[in-house]
Amino acid sequence: MQITLTLSDSKCIIPGKTCIGEKNYRYVSICKRDHVNYDSSMNHTATPQLLMQITEDTFEKILHTFREAQEINLQDVTFIDPYGMVGILEFGEFLKSNDIQKALFLPESEEVLKYLERMDFFRFASGYYILKPPKPQISQKYVRSSYSDVLLEITPIQKSDDIHFIVGKVKNRAHAILTNHLHYDERAINSFIVALSEVCQNILEHSETKGFVGIQKYHFQNINKNVVKIAVMDIGIGFRMSLSERFSLKNDLEAIKKALLHGASRHTEKGRGHGLAAVRRFVNQWNGKLSIRSGTARLSIIPAWAWGREKEPHLTHFPGTQINILLPEI
Question: Is 50 exceeded by the pLDDT of residue 143?
Fold first, then answer.
């Protein structure tokens, strides 16, 4: 599968790279297969092939490796998406909460380094890891625009006085991306933005640590459509503990089902805590993919054009909630 990453607010200034129009720079990663399958029975030894891409597909293997390794080596990475970036930062938040700091060897690919810099990854990673090298050498950085309609830089969600600014930034950028590249109607977009904002607000209620959100527009060649990826994560109390105040739950998978499929919430007030259920309805309406990971389980809604497993219990435990949304162009 060929995936094209477009940074429309960047000028194409690198010889030999593919340009479209005046301001489109395309970073293309050619994968030998459509996706990387994770098998829980696989040997837990890290392999260079696996660490070439950091996405939701490789997250389980990487999470186990990161836990066990004294140093985290990303030198061979050639592709990383918002889920991968936010996942690494939330793992750093997890380490920090346990007074642990590990060395993080950065990718050798300058293209990946440029993208990480453009997404503000280093701004936060340096607070969690010992970066090696501490200041990556990037010959020419992407030209930035505060009005980009192809991405939302990694944005922290934390208890602070500027939460309204943060939620507003997510709303404005997501609205521009969904309007310009997916062509969804205004009413649907507004409903989704309200639901996504509530999901971000839930992070503030359920987590004493920092959550993150990131968005990026891609072009998937296998379906010849633009696809927007949205990643939202925290390492808060997670679904099971949150819902345990009102429901008796056997495991993390049941808790996710209760929230995602049945709209369950820890709130008793009408209209509170149903952001995730609203996101699910929106994703279904527009034939998107939604996956929710919490604790030791992940539950996914998967359209015909995407891949993955619907139910994944018995995963490596990781606190909080990790959400991945893929929305295709109509």
Answer: yes
